Amino acid sequence: MSDTPPLTPPSPRASLVAYIHAVWAIIWKDLAAELRSRELVSAMLVFSLLMILIFNFALELDTQAKANLTSGVLWATFAFAGTLGLNRSMATEKDRGCLDGLLLAPVDRSAIFFGKAAGNLVFMLIVEAIILPIYSVLYSTNLFKPGLLLVILLGSVGYVAVGTLLASMAVQARTRDVLLPILLFPVAIPVLIAAVKGSSGFLEGARMDDITPWLNLLAVYDVIFIAVSFMIFDYVVEE
Amino acid sequence: MNRQPRKLVILNIVTLILLVAATLVVFLYAPMEAKMGNVQKVFYFHLAAAWVGMIGFSVAVIAGIAYLITNQRKWDIAGLAAVEVSLVFFFIAIVAGSIWARRTWGTWWTWDPRLTSAAIVELVYAAYLMLRQGIEDPDRRARFGAVYAIIAFISVPITFFSIRILRTIHPDLNQSGSGGMGLTPKMLHTLLFSLFVFSFVFADLYWHRLRLGQLTDKIEQLRLKVLE
After folding, report:
1. A223 reaches B (C-beta below 8 A)
2. pLDDT-flagged residues of chain A (< 70)
């Protein structure tokens, strides 16, 4: 037998680097696949535009859409498009056996969660970034206020954190396509409430005092559910 | 077929007697309320049913956590039974509340924090059952049920809180909450007795549902064994 040095556990710094490496690898895999096929973002985008169209007739929005209607329409659109993206993202993972492959890799399960959640967040943000200018043009409102962008970011983070966890459960059920909205919407209601109120606050130019409770609520929700989802994810993917 | 254990038979009888007693107490002992009249008596059973419905949620979460830690099937059965029975009780509470609201507020429903949260809790229970329905593997079904129970349990208080902030910043025109009614001592007695009785009803139904769950589990295991 050759003189192999005894195995020593990796230093904490090395483990952290490996962890970040794993998360990044998963994000990169999703982005690369999406770049080639462009099926996820295009589906979410077309769906969002159709939703804005339907809302136009359902709510009879005129060209000077009022601020509170705008935030409601935007967030309803983001919520439904987000569900689409989450479903597709986790479904391809399961159908092509990628999830099994990832689970076999010598990487912490929570890295898989963060990688998938970050990837889902990127897709949702891309769609939102395209929808905002389109909506601004269609309804002659300026949606590029920094406060609004902050609300959209915080809201999307919370939505995607819970959504990734619930989507990984939903895709393993028979009724996979309908199940995710049924599971996600009741649980994501605080995000929707706070995001809509925060968005309309920024659009109307309300006082910061009135808006900060909603921002705080979003931040608290994000922290709680990122922590809970990341801890529970193990139980969802174990075989 | 397993026969009902003796204690359960006794519980059935006791519960039935208590339920009759509670009805009599509500109609004969509790005083007539000045403004609302007879319809106010719905309140006793409405509150008792709602209270019991909330217990079920807590039981489901505890059972869920216990299942994830121990992996014993009995916790899964306990959680499912709690959610199913609570779903029914909560629905009773919502309907009874609607009847009362129609008479006193003139509307079947308002979107105030408590009612909205009640509707959300009911939908969460239903979502839990739909999640379980869609999964065939018993172990996975139990795990996912536990996970969803935990997630939902954490989100419901946050939801209630956020709806409350929503309604206080934009005050609702329909400001007549159910707390706007003073309770005389006799009303308080009636209420406490109703709570007591409904706890018995819950325990009785819950025990029956547990037995049903155990039998279902046994059948499923036999079926899986045959299919192998």
Report:
1. no
2. 1-6, 63-65, 67, 239
Q: Where are the domains of chain A?
A: 15-237
A9 C-beta neighbours (distance < 10 Å), count: 7
CA proximity to A193, closest of B155, B13, B148, B206? B155
Residue B27 per-residue DSSP state: I
| pLDDT at residue number A49 | 92
B163, exposed or middle or buried, with CB in 10 Å at 0-12, 13-18, 19+? buried
- Residues A104 and A113: their CA atoms lie apart, in Å, by 14
Residue at A184: amino acid letter: L
- Distance CA(B87)–CA(A159), nearest Å, equals 26
Return the residue matching tokens 């996975």: B140
Fill in the amino acid letter for B179: G
Q: How does pLDDT run across A104-124, given as a tens digit for each residue?
A: 887 788 889 999 999 999 999
CA A213 to chain centre: 22
Show residues of chain A in contact with B145, CB under 8 Å: none
ipTM of the complex: 0.85
Per-residue model confidence as pLDDT tens digits over B121-151: 889 989 999 999 988 888 999 999 999 999 9
Closest CA to B59 of B146, B144, B130, B160: B146
Please state, in angstroms and rounded to a whole number, the distance separating the CA atoms of residues A176 and A69.
31
Instruction: Find which of A164, A187, A210 to mutate to test the B interface (most B CBs within 10 Å of its CB).
Output: A187
| B178 — pLDDT class (breaks 50, 70, 90) | very low
